[in-house]
Amino acid sequence: MGQGVGPRRPQPRDGELGAAVARAQDGDETAFAVAYRIVHPGLLGYLRGLVGEEAEDVASEAWLEIARDLGRFRGDGAGFRAWTAAIARHRALDHLRRQRARPRPVPLEQDALELPGRHSTDDQALESLSTERALELVRALPRDQAEAVLLRVIVGLDGPAAARLLGKRPGAVRTATHRGLRRLARHLGDTGTGGATPGPVRD
User: Fold this and answer.
1) Which range has the worst mean pLDDT, 34-38, 87-91, 96-100, 107-111?
2) pTM of the entire structure?
3) How far is Cα 63 from Cα 88, in angstroms, rounded to an integer?
4) CA distances from 9 to 28, 56, 72, 134, 141 (A)
């Protein structure tokens, strides 16, 4: 049995992100660009998992809203990730309602899967696969599991933040994440590239 995934550590650049957001709120456009570069890859990967090829357009709408409402944000770097993810998700759901289509899993951006400096079980599961194989496995997950894994691994939210964004209980998100990671680990075991099943995800 594999080890459980412990509480999610702060993202490596959350300190830099928080400082950049604070400067951007004071009108520093360069600082806003820094925040954008830190957050955008994960945000775009998440949106690709929700709306497919329209992710770039939805991301543009989200960033317009983020820029417009930046002065209202209160929090640190981790809080900014959660806030931007919530805005992006709302824009994605609006888009899907307009299209009268269900979210369809599609390939994620390769750079969204190459986030540095994390070594928890879920990251190791993804990092031990080729990018193509990782994308194939994530696309194959049920929607609730895929979105939970995307928010925890790609966007970098902790369990409570992901639960608030999804409007679910933390336990439900923890279960969906765990089941998604178990599926990934099972595929790894089947292909002989790994195989320790992750333990419960703890927030």
Assistant:
1) 107-111
2) 0.70
3) 8
4) 28, 29, 26, 22, 25
How far, CA to CA in Å, does 49 sit from each of 84, 173, 175?
Answer: 16, 17, 19
Nearest C-alpha neighbor of 45 from the set 88, 13, 98: 88
- Give the span between the Cα atoms of 15 and 38, in whole angstroms: 11
Q: Which residues are CB-contacts of 187 (< 8 A; sequence separation ≥ 6)?
A: 137
Provide, rounded to the nearest whole percent, the portion of the chain with pLDDT above 70.
67
Three-state DSSP class for 182? Answer: helix
- At 105, the pLDDT band (50, 70, 90 cuts) reads low
Closest to 18 (Cα-Cα) out of 34, 40, 41: 34
